[in-house]
Amino acid sequence: MPPLRLTRAAPALLLCLPLGITACGDDGDTKAAAEGADGAEDQAAPEFYADVAPMLAENCLRCHTEGGQGPGDFSDPAVVDALADVMLAAIDDGRMPPPVADPSCRDYIGSEHLTLKAGARDTFAAWVNSARLIGAAPDSPMQAPVAPELTGADMELLIPATYTPVYADTLNPGNEYRCFVLDTGHTDDFFITAMHPLVDSAEILHHSVLFTVPKDELDPSWLAPDGVDCINDMGATDGMISAWAPGMLPIEFEDGAGIRVSGDSVLVLQLHYYASATGVPDRSGYAMRTAPSVTRELRMAPFGAYGFRIPAGEQTYSFTETINWSEGYPPIRVWGSFPHMHVLGTGYRMWVEREDGTEDCLLEGNDRYDFHNQLTYMFNEAPVVRPGDSVHFECTWDNSAENPNQLFDPPQDIGYGERTDQEMCYAFTLVSIGEL
Ligand code: HEC
Fold it and tell me: What is the pTM of this model?
């Protein structure tokens, strides 16, 4: 099919050069495979729109679309044709869609859109390794089944002014962590009952963290309209409210539940910019639904481990922190959690050990932790922790020279610290007090 080669090569070149993908556009293997598939003609060859499009829409289009966070528009069959082998490789080595917590430990809201359904990979592979028929395009354009936007927001807060990141940090080239104080207009307490970021320049926003800082602890420089560099200074960890990464769906608490923002605190938004493009201005923010009072107050319990020392060179090092829920502690209900480590983190697990010795899985992401894709997971069913139970939280790191995120050459022993070249092990966990 010589005439097709041009249309196949063109998007490949456009996409692959900036991505540095060398295998791109080299479709020698695919053509051989396609020829091989011709032998099995009695089996209907898969078609793009009929067979592949639903999976791409469900799992990739949220990010890989015009103006989206990921490169390429995967609703265009020519783009998918050009990138097919790279896409399959990214799925097979677990990089795409970006890894998230395992819903089979405990299901969480939106898990069906964040993970591949059984068989989805094989359907795509069958198309990649066949004649790559396109089929009839549907009447309406392909789109992601979930719109990651919050409905009914009554508070929409943007950072004070448009900001263009400069990426001055030499330890993390191409990354900038910027904190902005958001003006809520409140001097009294209020509650956040639902929230989601307002993303302006999706292609440079890697993740965001929303937290509060007590007014009497706030460095006045943080009030600057263009914010402050804050990679190593997230304020008090118990002020954490939420973490977001692209693709995450809005967080909506059930009726009557909310997180308090004290009138004595300011709301701070940390934006992690990533230099996929330089000179791109951004004015992102947060949309929220709020209430003056709630019947169930959700509180942040920062389950953390501090006593670890990750040996230099160790490829798989785990450390577990245990909190014994002693007699006299009130029962708590656990609504969700946000696991957090730094760049060497590779996996996490949180579970409740019941008084009778049984275990209840809370959150598991072994080999699934990705510093660049940190999410808050809100459980579909919120379990209760009672006196006599223990809560365990385990973090796993790769401190070897082979870890592509390794910052030291040669690797060094790493302990707890706020700096990116130190490590953390937190499960920022949303709880309410009492059985209900
Ligand atoms: C949550 C957003 C998001 C989703 C969902 C997503 N991607 Fe990506 N993808 C990205 C971002 C961001 C990049 C560029 C940075 C990187 O490589 O991490 C990327 C890069 C890629 C690349 C090129 C670089 C590489 O890693 O090989 C491929 C291919 C890719 N994605 C395929 C897919 C496929 C296939 C799906 C769906 C099954 C998918 N992605 C779902 C965000 C996403």
Answer: 0.80
